[in-house]
Design a protein that fits this description.
single chain; 31% strand; alpha+beta; 2 helices; Alpha-D-Glucose-1,6-Bisphosphate, Chain A, domain 4; two-stranded antiparallel sheet
Length: 95
């Protein structure tokens, strides 16, 4: 079954994928929660601009960011909102 498809609670198709990382969960959480690292682990993202830097810190629920595909910020982009962050569980959910 393809991971790409309609998901409950979303009006658009989503891509779901998971991997196992051989590193302590805390180290992985901290790396992924730091938006400055996005281009190091995502082939889609050139860079990220935080939309509410004075309200929320990296990796916390409520943080909004805009992901740009191109360095010149033209073309594809998407906005994300962290809806849940559980550092002790090492999970972050966003939409």
């Amino acid at each position: 079954m393809s991971p790409y498809g309609l998901q409950k609670g979303f009006s658009c198709k989503l891509m779901k994928h998971s991997i196992d990382i051989n590193a302590p969960a805390e180290k992985v959480f901290d790396f992924l929660a730091n938006f400055g690292n996005a281009s190091r682990w995502s082939s889609f993202v050139s860079h990220i601009t935080v939309l509410n830097p004075d309200s929320f810190t990296d990796g916390t629920a409520g943080r909004r960011r805009r992901c740009f595909r191109n360095k010149n910020e033209k073309g594809m982009q998407c906005d994300e909102l962290i809806t849940e962050a559980a550092p002790k569980k090492k999970t972050v959910k966003h939409r």
